[in-house]
UniProtKB/TrEMBL annotation:
Biased composition (Acidic residues): 1-11
Residue ranges of the region described as Disordered: 1-29
Domain AB hydrolase-1: 49-147
Identification of the protein by name: Pimeloyl-ACP methyl ester carboxylesterase
UniProt superkingdom: Bacteria
UniProt xrefs under InterPro entries: AB_hydrolase, AB_hydrolase_1, AB_hydrolase_fold
Length: 276
């Protein structure tokens, strides 16, 4: 069992009340116009680049524990609000992981960012894996935390107090950040429809992935079957499985030190200057 630290928030009571710690000041932030949406981003620090992709219904501010840790390790950190999430807008098209992946590439192009390690959480992990498939030359590696790559990988939904607290925080943040602050329920419905029917990548697709991948799975993930994580690690060439003990789908918020240790170890294994 991972050691508990004072900063830990297993119940997400602190997250519900206050959100994650504020992101540090950025070097640059703004919007990129792409495919009918304005995609918000912020770039922090300098060095080899890491892109953080948040989960469904969340926003970049949920990485408040991870951005400082990556900056302290000497990396440039780019955060992106997925289309329709946070400060980013969307058009009337249904949500698609592939469309969100193209948004990330548009931000990379706008920042003249040739290549980056991608850290994805939940929906952001699927977007990261899609990027690893469609644009491997732009992706140094994928840290894939808490997601499925086909519909069979998800558990039947069971509400819990932790999930309810996270959802409450998402509702508050959407009202504060979104260009359409009164449309949270429609937003949830549209994202949920995507989650129910996508992604749809199977063994033959995954076997063609050529970038380094870590499948990070929490011991108590509420949404993803552990055997699905094992399957992904088995069919993606060279992929490693890293099970994070004592945490759930919200590990980056619950036990930041545990999550950050795994994340940084991966990043430094795939970016220049990292261990061989």
């Amino acid at each position: 069992m991972a050691a508990f630290q004072e900063s830990d928030d297993d119940s997400l009571e602190r997250f519900e009340a206050h959100g994650a710690p504020p992101l540090p000041a950025s070097n640059e932030s703004g919007w990129v116009e792409h495919e009918g949406a304005r995609i918000w981003y912020a770039s922090h620090g300098s060095g080899t680049a890491v892109i953080l992709l948040h989960g469904g219904l969340g926003h970049s501010g949920n990485w408040g524990y991870q951005v400082p840790a990556l900056l302290a390790a000497g990396h440039r950190v780019v955060v992106i609000d997925s289309r329709g999430h946070g400060r980013s807008t969307r058009d009337a098209r249904p949500y698609k992981y592939e469309l969100m992946a193209s948004d990330v590439l548009a931000v990379m192009d706008a920042l003249a960012l040739e290549r980056a390690a991608i850290v994805g959480w939940s929906d952001g992990a699927c977007v990261a894996m899609v990027l690893g498939m469609v644009a491997p030359q732009r992706v140094a590696g994928v840290f894939f935390f808490g997601c499925n790559m086909d519909p069979s990988g998800t558990k039947e939904f069971v509400a819990t107090p932790v999930i309810d607290r996270c959802f409450s925080r998402h509702r508050q943040d959407y009202a504060r950040l979104s260009a359409t602050p009164d449309e949270f329920d429609a937003f949830v419905a549209a994202v949920s429809e995507m989650m129910k029917t996508e992604p749809n990548y199977f063994a033959d697709d995954l076997a063609r992935i050529s970038v380094p991948v870590v499948i990070a799975q929490s011991e108590h993930d509420e949404f993803i079957k552990p055997e699905h994580a094992e399957y992904l690690a088995g069919v993606i060439p060279g992929a490693e499985l890293n099970v994070l003990p004592g945490v759930s789908h919200f590990a980056p918020l619950q036990r930041p030190a545990l999550f950050n240790k795994a994340m940084i170890a991966f990043v430094e294994s795939v970016l220049p200057g990292g261990p061989s």
